[in-house]
């Protein structure tokens, strides 16, 4: 039986009362010294040692926050930089988070010509055929997709998603400052991001869960006014909102990303959670208690967003 992951994500958000996703984007300079020392003692200062340090760091954080949140979003680049050993840590992280009951959003930002997008979609969401057998690869529940190559690059992800009950988040208006160089350009009197949003709504209309489409959108928290417009353009798309915390977004900026019933968006924080112990607000926890600091940061984020959307 194929499980509807969009329905599951919406239900998990309601159960936890936490419309947030934690970005598991480990950098080596975030990882406390005692974790690196232990990993390097076992594997040396090698790629394998880096992979082990990342895995132990992620595991400790997930152990401390998994009961509070509906989902996690590992960013694959933070793992790919360490080659195969980093990807092993990526896979272990996905498998562990699934065992903890979390929804997995793979932040991969893929998008290419049709056959290549299909291969990406199969590798991250679907099952690869090997002779008479088929096997899941990374097996995320959702992935982020770059729409720059148009429908040819997006529809293979939608088709694999239909087969597997999984979904995508299409980049519409990203949180980085230079996004305006392309995304804000006017095309027939509209900013490009609005035209992309119209396509997201169109693609999603044929791929609906109970309340929201399997085709969601990425819209940065740093652009609240655009979020207000895009919420109306894509009323049935779940919006993934990066840029909270370390990039400047705050709960007060986020109300427009949600529908009137307080649903329809999930807010991401990455280093603001996983490296919370480095911030002045949580420095009392110290490096040794980094995972406890992450839990406190999640609790504060939930409270901040809840008061903004009530």
Report what the structure shows.
- The structure is a single chain.
- With 310 residues, the protein is of the alpha/beta class.
- The chain has a single domain (5-305), classed as TIM Barrel, CATH 3.20.20.70.
- Helix content is 45%, strand content 16%.
- It contains 12 helices and 12 strands.
- The strands form 3 sheets. Strands 1-2-3-6-7-10-11-12 form an 8-stranded parallel barrel, surrounded by 7 helices.
- Helix 2 (33-43) crosses helix 3 (47-65) and helix 3 crosses helix 12.
- The radius of gyration is 19 Å and the shape is globular.
- The two termini are 36 Å apart.
- The mean pLDDT is 94.
Number of helical segments with 4 or more residues: 12
Which regions contain 5 or more consecutive residues with pLDDT less than 50? none
- CATH-derived topology: TIM Barrel
**CATH architecture label name:** Alpha-Beta Barrel
Largest sheet features:
8 strands, parallel, barrel
- What proportion of the residues form beta strands (DSSP E)? 15-25%
CATH class: Alpha Beta
How many β strands by DSSP? 12
Average of pLDDT = 94
- Report strand order across the widest sheet: 1-2-3-6-7-10-11-12
CATH superfamily (homologous) name: Aldolase class I
User: How many distinct domains?
Assistant: 1
Spatial extent as radius of gyration: 19 Å
Helix content: 40-55%
- Whole-Å distance between the termini? 36 Å
Based on helices, strands and strand pairing, what is the structural class? alpha/beta
- Helices and strands, in N-to-C order? HEHHEHHEHEEEHEHEEHEHEEHH
Basic shape: globular
């Amino acid at each position: 039986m194929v499980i509807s992951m969009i329905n599951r994500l919406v239900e998990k958000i309601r159960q936890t009362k936490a419309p947030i996703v934690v970005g598991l984007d480990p950098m080596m300079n975030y990882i406390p010294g005692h974790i690196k020392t232990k990993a390097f003692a076992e594997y040396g200062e090698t790629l394998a040692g880096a992979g082990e340090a990342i895995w132990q760091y992620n595991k400790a954080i997930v152990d401390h926050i998994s009961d509070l949140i509906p989902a996690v979003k590992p960013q694959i680049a933070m793992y790919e930089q360490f080659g195969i050993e980093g990807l092993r840590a990526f896979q272990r992280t996905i498998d562990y988070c699934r065992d903890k009951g979390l929804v997995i959003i793979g932040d991969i930002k893929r998008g290419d010509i049709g056959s290549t997008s299909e291969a990406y979609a199969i590798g991250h969401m679907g099952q690869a055929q090997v002779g008479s057998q088929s096997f899941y690869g990374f097996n995320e529940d959702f992935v982020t997709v770059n729409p720059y190559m148009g429908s040819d690059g997006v529809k293979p992800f939608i088709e694999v998603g239909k087969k597997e009950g999984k979904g995508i988040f299409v980049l519409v208006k990203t949180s980085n400052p230079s996004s305006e160089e392309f995304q804000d350009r006017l095309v027939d009197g509209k900013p490009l991001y609005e035209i992309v949003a119209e396509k997201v709504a169109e693609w999603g209309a044929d791929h609906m869960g109970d309340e929201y489409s399997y085709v969601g959108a990425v819209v940065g928290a740093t652009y609240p006014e655009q979020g207000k417009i895009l919420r109306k353009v894509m009323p049935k798309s779940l919006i993934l909102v990066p840029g909270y915390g370390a990039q400047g977004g705050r709960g007060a900026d986020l109300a427009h990303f949600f529908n009137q019933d307080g649903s329809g968006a999930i807010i991401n924080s990455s280093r603001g959670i996983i490296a919370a112990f480095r911030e002045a607000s949580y420095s009392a926890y110290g490096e040794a208690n980094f995972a406890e600091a992450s839990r406190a940061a999640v609790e504060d984020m939930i409270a901040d967003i809840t008061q903004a959307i009530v």
